[in-house]
Design a protein that fits this description.
The complex is a heterodimer. By secondary structure, chain A is an all-alpha fold. Chain A has helices spanning 7-36, 42-54, 57-68, 73-82, 90-115, 118-126, 131-159, 163-169, 179-188, 192-223. In chain A, helix 1 packs antiparallel against helix 7 (131-159) and helix 7 (131-159) packs antiparallel against helix 10 (192-223). Chain A is globular and about 65 Å long. The N and C termini of chain A lie far apart (51 Å). Chain B has a single domain (2-211), classed as P-loop containing nucleotide triphosphate hydrolases (Rossmann fold), CATH 3.40.50. Chain B is built from six helices and ten strands. In chain B, strand 7 (148-152), helix 5 and strand 8 (181-184) form a beta-alpha-beta unit. In chain B, helix 3 packs antiparallel against helix 4. Chain B starts with a strand and ends with a strand. The model of chain B has no long low-confidence stretch (mean pLDDT 91). Classes of the chains: A mainly alpha, B alpha/beta. Chains A and B meet through helix 6 and helix 7 of A and strand 6 of B.
Chain lengths: 227, 212
C-alpha cells in the first residue's frame, strides 16, 4: 500500500480515458473530412484544430472559461439542457484534456489516412462495396497503426494536462485533483516527497507510452503498406 | 454495347477517344503515358472526363452536365496495373471481398483451380510473387461477375505457361459471359491472340484501329 491517497491517479485515468474516447471519435471524423473534402475555410478549420499546440495553456483555460463558464454560452446550454456544470468539476478537466490532445490525435489519424493508398479504396468501389464498409474493412484497418499511436499520445497528453485544467476545474482535493495538480500543490506546500511520488508515477506512464508507440511504429513499418 | 466519347485534359496532352464496343475484346496498345490507364479510370468512374459521354448497355456512366454514375453502381471488374491487392487480407479474402456470405463460390473455386492459385489462397499479398498476385487480382476482378472487364496490363508479370493459361481462361470467360473486355498491353502478340479489335493510342489520340 502507498502512503498517499491514490484518488488523483484514478481521477486522472478517468479524465484521460473519457477525453481520449471523444478525441478518438472527433479526430476520426475530422481527419476523414479533411482528407476527403475541399471546402471554403478548410485551412481555417484546420488551424483551429491545431491551435492548442501553440497556445499557452492559460489561453486555452481562459477560452474554456469564456465558453463553458456559468455565464458562457455553452455553460448555460449544458446547465439548462443536461443540468450539469463544467467549471470546478472533473468534466471541466476532461474538456481541457480533450482540447489539448485533439490536435495530436488529429495529426496522427490524418497522416495514417493519407498513407492508405486510394487505389485500395477505388478497387473496393469498383466491386460495388459501400463507402462505410470500405472505411470499416479497408481504410480503418490499414490506418490502424497510426490511429493507435495517436490514441496513446492523446491519452498521455490528456493525463498530463495541467494549466487549462487548473483554470477551468480548479483545485478541489478529491473532486478535481488530478495527478499534475497534486504534484503542483504538494510542491507548493513543501511536501517534496509526495510531489516526487506523483512525478515518478506520471513519468513512468509517459515513458511507457512513448516506448510502446516507438515499438509499435517499428513493428508496423515492416508489415503494413507492403503488397 | 459500350459507347465511349471522352475528352479530358491531361498534363501534356488532351485525351480524346471515341469508339463503340459490342461484346468484344478490345486491346489498347500504345506507349507509356499515352492515356490508356486514364481511359480505363474514366470507364470505371475513378476519374471523370471533362466532356463527352460514356454508356454501357444503355446505362449512362457519364454524360456532360449530369452527375456521373457512382463507381459502385457501374458493375466494372477492374484489374489495376499494380494489382492493388488489399495488403491486410489473404488472397482468398481479397477474391471474396465483395461477395456476400451466402454467395455461390463454386465458379470462383473453378477459376482458382484453372489459374493455378488454389495453393495460395491462405497467403497474404506480400508472401506471393508478382505473377501470382496478378492471377489473384484477375480472379478478384472476375469474381464480382461484372458487366465489363477492364484489365490494365493483365499478363505483364506472367511466365509463358501462365500467360497462356490466363489468356485461355479469359477467352473462355468471354465466351461464357459475353461482356465487353478491354485490356491494356504492350505485347502486340497478346493483342493479336485475344482481341477482336486493337486500338492504338498515342498522346491521348486514337492513331490506328484494327478490326479482326
Amino acid at each position: 500500500m502507498t502512503p498517499y491517497d491514490l484518488s488523483p491517479l484514478w481521477l486522472s485515468l478517468r479524465v484521460a480515458v473519457i477525453s481520449t474516447l471523444f478525441v478518438f471519435l472527433a479526430s476520426l471524423a475530422l481527419a476523414r473530412l479533411m482528407n476527403r473534402r475541399d471546402f471554403f475555410g478548410k485551412s481555417f478549420v484546420e488551424a483551429l484544430i491545431l491551435l492548442p499546440l501553440v497556445l499557452p495553456p492559460t489561453v486555452i483555460g481562459f477560452g474554456l472559461i469564456v465558453l463553458f463558464g456559468v455565464n458562457g454560452p455553452l455553460g448555460i446550454l449544458l446547465e439548462q439542457w443536461f443540468g450539469f456544470r463544467v467549471v470546478f468539476t472533473w468534466i471541466g478537466a476532461a474538456i481541457a484534456s480533450f482540447v489539448v490532445s485533439l490536435p495530436l490525435m488529429y495529426q496522427s489519424v490524418l497522416a495514417a489516412f493519407e498513407k492508405v493508398d486510394p487505389r485500395w479504396e477505388n478497387v473496393a468501389r469498383t466491386m460495388g462495396v459501400s463507402e462505410w464498409r470500405i472505411f470499416r474493412t479497408i481504410t480503418f484497418p490499414l490506418a490502424w497503426s497510426g490511429i493507435l499511436a495517436g490514441l496513446i499520445l492523446a491519452f498521455a497528453r490528456g493525463i498530463g494536462e495541467f494549466g487549462a485544467t487548473l483554470m477551468i476545474a480548479g483545485y478541489i482535493p478529491g473532486v478535481t485533483e488530478t495527478v499534475p495538480l497534486a504534484i503542483y500543490f504538494a510542491y507548493e506546500a513543501g511536501d517534496m516527497e509526495k510531489a516526487l511520488f506523483w512525478v515518478l508515477i506520471i513519468s513512468s506512464l509517459g515513458v511507457a507510452a512513448i516506448a510502446w508507440v516507438n515499438y509499435w511504429r517499428k513493428k508496423n513499418a515492416i508489415r503494413i503498406g507492403r503488397e | 454495347m459500350l459507347k465511349v466519347d471522352v475528352q479530358k485534359q491531361l498534363d501534356h496532352f488532351n485525351l480524346d477517344m471515341e469508339f463503340e464496343l459490342g461484346q468484344e475484346i478490345l486491346a489498347l496498345v500504345g506507349s507509356s503515358g499515352s492515356g490508356k490507364t486514364t481511359l480505363l479510370n474514366c470507364l470505371a468512374g475513378i476519374v471523370h472526363p471533362d466532356a463527352g459521354e460514356i454508356s454501357l448497355n444503355g446505362r449512362n456512366f457519364y454524360r456532360e452536365g449530369q452527375k456521373p454514375l457512382k463507381i459502385q453502381k457501374r458493375k466494372v471488374g477492374y484489374l489495376f496495373q499494380d494489382y492493388a491487392l488489399f495488403p491486410h487480407l489473404t488472397a482468398e479474402q481479397n477474391i471474396l471481398y465483395a461477395l456476400s456470405r451466402v454467395a455461390d463460390t463454386s465458379p470462383i473455386t473453378e477459376l482458382t483451380k484453372i489459374l493455378g492459385i488454389t495453393g495460395l489462397l491462405a497467403k497474404y499479398p506480400h508472401q506471393i510473387s508478382g505473377g501470382e498476385k496478378q492471377r489473384v487480382a484477375l480472379t478478384r476482378a472476375m469474381a464480382v461477375q461484372p458487366d465489363i472487364l477492364l484489365l490494365d496490363e493483365p499478363f505483364s508479370a506472367l511466365d509463358d505457361a501462365n500467360r497462356d493459361r490466363c489468356q485461355d481462361e479469359l477467352l473462355r470467360i468471354h465466351r461464357q459471359w459475353q461482356i465487353p473486355i478491354i485490356f491494356v498491353t504492350h505485347r502486340i502478340a497478346d493483342a493479336e491472340k485475344l482481341a477482336d479489335r486493337i486500338i492504338r493510342i498515342e498522346k491521348g489520340q486514337m492513331t490506328e484501329q484494327t478490326v479482326f
